[in-house]
């Protein structure tokens, strides 16, 4: 029986996870074509800049979740949990996670984010969910919740996903294609692909045959430091420094440093870190978790590894996972994941894989 020639366009966490799941079926012959690959750092390549963790619907700037999206994140947790338990080489580890609600947010218009931390839908998914005792709350914090989550070292995890694909026979090719239909002719065998999976993220805004104007960037800025935060921590909603600035931190697995963030700046494309914003990010982090630095120290106690900027690929109307025919080419879309690409990765990829199977099955009838 002839193999199913498939081209996956894009090698971020969505493209790699989709290719990985597809590669588990030996009847699939897969080529991943991408401009950027694991190990690259570029403003067009969002995945390396993510924290990354599993804290659904708290810092996504989307107000509230929805049943479809919740299912995708719920279906992702077992995979991340198994990787943390059984595959230390994937760069994922368990970490205590704490979400705080400021006194100034109590009863404010930011109620959806407040509720997301106090009684989130995932409280029965993650282990050890409970409230933070009042005597353990930082100054200015009204309440908080804590639970066990995972933090992902993206510098290890993205290559790990690629390595699993390679082990299953996936071929990787660098390439820049002007039109989605061109991907059908980019299969490594030289034969025309039966199907293309589009995981190009924000690039789907300008990719010929897709040009999705519902996509827009949401700029995030981080500071990576060598200091250990001791736990993932986040304050709900905005900060006193501005409505589009956030306060969160997480320590990556396997020596990946602690990520301090951040911001949620809509329709901002600037790739250069803002030094003033970086100072505010560091000050907020130290104020929330003084244990980041030595006693009595301020941000001068932080040992900075690098500053970074990433663009979240947010899509009005939510993630696009559907089948389309473009110039006679069957395309399965899986893009527009905003700031939740990792924590919904396996759920979204699983849906995309189911659509691929449906297209291939129909083609053989």
Automatic annotation (TrEMBL):
Q: Where does FAD bind?
A: 200
Catalytic activity, EC: 1.4.3.3
GO MF entries: D-amino-acid oxidase activity; FAD binding
Q: Which SUPFAM superfamilies has this protein been placed in?
A: FAD-linked reductases, C-terminal domain (SSF54373), Nucleotide-binding domain (SSF51971)
Reactions catalysed according to its record = a D-alpha-amino acid + O2 + H2O = a 2-oxocarboxylate + H2O2 + NH4(+)
Entry-linked InterPro entries: D-amino_acid_oxidase_CS (IPR006181), DAO (IPR023209), FAD-dep_OxRdtase (IPR006076)
Q: Protein name, please?
A: D-amino-acid oxidase
Q: Which organism is it from?
A: Aspergillus candidus
The opening ranks of the lineage are: Eukaryota, Fungi, Dikarya, Ascomycota, Pezizomycotina
